[in-house]
Amino acid sequence: MIKTAIFFVIFAITSGQLNNNLYDDYTGGSRLINILKLPKALVDFFTQSQRYLAEQVQDTTPQSGDTFDFIVIGAGTAGATIAARLSKISQIKVLLIEDGTHEDLYMDIPLLCSMLQKTKINRSYRTKPSNKYCLGIEGNNCVCPTAKVIGGSSVLNFMVATRGNAEDYDRWAEMGNKGWAYKDVLKYFKKLETMDIPELKSDITYHNTNGPVHITQSEYRTGVAKAFIQASKEMGYPIVDYNGKEEIGFSYVQRTIMNGTRMSSNRAYLNPARDRKNLHVTLESMVTKLLIDPSTKRAIGVEFVKHDQTTRVIANKEVIVCAGAIGSPQLLMLSGIGPMKHLINLGIDVVQDAPVGENFMDHIAFYGLTWAINTSTSLLSSEQLNPFNPYITDFLLKRTGPFTIPGGLEGIGFINTKHPEKRNGLPDIELLFTSVSFKNYIFSDMLHLKKSIRQEWSKYVDTFGWSLMPILMKPKSRGRITLLANDVNVKPEITLNYFNDPNDMKTMIAGLRTALNFGQTKAMQALNSQLLQITCTECHDYEYDSNAYWECMLRLLTSTVFHYCGTCKMGAKGDPTAVVDPKLKVIGIQGLRVADASIMPEIISGHLSIPVYMIAEKAADMIKEEWGYLEKS
How many angstroms separate the Cα of 116 from the Cα of each of 112, 122, 123, 556? Predict the structure, then answer.
């Protein structure tokens, strides 16, 4: 009996093909061949990882009193860009300060990006508890990941490349921010970009082919994603280049990926600059304070701690803060720039009264819509991670296959729920399509869902399916960042204030109902798509599919989509809500700028990574122009 069992196991391994074959024309051999390839693939990946680390900028440690022309705080999307651009001017001495360490190659595997939130590079911020939103999350407070690594959140994000809408930037200009209209910023979107999507390369009005950041679409696509694109046509939407003339419509996701792996700001900007003698990078260095001369109100340097050693460095020209929409306002307030009363209450000497930390914005996302299908044309974690299948080895050896799909995100669309017939102008909802079910352990863990919801979702972890996430593009509600202590090691308090404006809930329900209609299209019904109607206990008293029911579900399963911005708002001088002026200079302080997502006066209609690159590119040019460096970057 035992011999028979062993025989059948060996037979299944050596002669059985894939149980779940996502490759229509797979010719890679037997299950045994797949697993025999794995050791070599792992060794090759380890070797490449070591080489990858060796090719990165070197960590240096400045001494107290060392002087630099420019000090950049934060080596994330913006900071890496600005430091690299400034250091192309040979006579400029630049110091880039980062509290994280080097980027590892495993962080650049697209499919596994959501797992990075459980690693040491995530600062793991949590919001102030609420009784209006994030009610399905442990503690009633949303998770707000940001990255503690060189490359910042460009190493932690889902690699979605969107610019937003032309009207977004025109509105910035109308709010008093001269030089930030779409006609002004388009050249910076082009400057940062290498467009690798063949059919878009020739569109030189909107795209470029020699910038640092490579943008692609996946060569590998699941069958369910192809069905979704067909469903969007069936719904009457065009297939668009949403980073071109018009945003409204649907498309496969444009991604910041090159050769199958993540294209971070570290990889795009800093790695090519690693041999520049005038670029100094100090890692694992926590900035505790900006040094500001109170008599002249001028930023003169920075204090940071590295390996328990406090160091003060001097900036001859400027300090540029690029610590993100949470870190930048925290640092400004700790340095005496912020709401006067709030700082006095914490015992912080006030240098400049300013509305730092206000105007906090984020895109609200609903994680509750998943459809089960009766085919194996979607992604399933257990199948992807099964070493008998070819997916792991194909990625490790050739950088191909499902592992090149960022977090399972394959399709994207922008719609106007108030005027569904409109095909131009601003969208109010994004629909983000994933070829995975949200009802899996990874998403439950990423969102820190409550035990009762996890138990219900766990019944479907081995179910093939797809999910559609409605995302609110233009929230009217505003939150804030405040300090809890005069201590950089105490995380600030994050108040989201989702749904404070009732219009936000109305728009989300409209977006959700549009998403539900996709499940009824012929294209998705051909896969026998069935909505998983998992009603949380808290919503049992509401009639299913009523607006009250969906409002209840939205308050439970709505969470951040990690697009924090606005907390150091850009505005014209004289604007009482502004922290920085249109040159990104901190109002009332000389020699100090902020350049990251925190300066956005209004959130844009898309994901924030590419717009932050744009902000950084424009900031670098404004800095060079001011100081008389005319060389082209």
Answer: 7, 7, 11, 24
Paired strand residues for 192? none
Catalytic residue among 102, 214, 280, 563: 563
Cα 197 from Cα 256, distance rounded (Å): 11
How many angstroms separate the CA atoms of 131 and 567, rounded? 23
Per DSSP, the residues of 42-101 read HHHHHHHHHHHHHTSPPB--PPTT-EEEEEEE--SHHHHHHHHHHHTSTT--EEEE-SSB
Neighbours of 341 (CB within 10 A): 9
Q: How far apart are the C-alpha atoms of 15 and 7, rounded to whole Å? A: 12
**Does residue 514 contact residue 470 with C-beta atoms inside 8 Å?**
yes
Task: Supply φ then ψ for residue 99, to 5 degrees.
Answer: -85, -10
Whether residue 548 contacts residue 556, with contact meaning beta carbons closer than 8 Å, is answered with no
Say which DSSP state 517 is in. H
266 DSSP assignment: I
Structure token pair of residue 594: 């902020």
- The pTM (predicted TM-score) of the whole model is 0.95
Q: How far is CA 196 from the centre of its chain?
A: 20
Contact of 154 with 264, CB cutoff 8 Å: yes
Average pLDDT, the chain: 93
Render pLDDT for 222-240 as a digit per residue (tens, 0 to 9): 999 999 999 999 999 999 9
Nearest one of 131, 117, 136 to 456, comparing CA atoms: 136
Residues 122 and 145: their CA atoms lie apart, in Å, by 6
Distance from C-alpha of 141 to C-alpha of 494, rounded to nearest angstrom: 10
Can you count the helices (H) and strands (E) in the chain?
17, 25
Active site residue 563: yes
Query: In terms of Cα–Cα distance, which of 154, 83, 147, 95 is closest to 117?
Result: 147
For 60, other C-beta atoms within 10 Å of its C-beta total: 12
End-to-end CA distance of the chain: 73
Distance between CA atoms of 326 and 508, rounded to whole angstroms? 25
Listed residue (408, 318, 348) closest to 73, CA to CA? 318
Torsion of CA 547, 552, 556, 562, to 10 degrees: 40
Closest CA to 555 of 494, 605, 603, 508: 508
Task: With a cut of 50, say whether residue 6 has pLDDT above it.
Answer: no
Q: What is the pLDDT of residues 397-415, one digit of tens each?
A: 999 999 999 999 999 999 9
Q: Give tens-digit pLDDT for 144-199.
A: 999 999 999 999 999 999 999 999 999 999 999 999 999 999 999 999 999 999 99
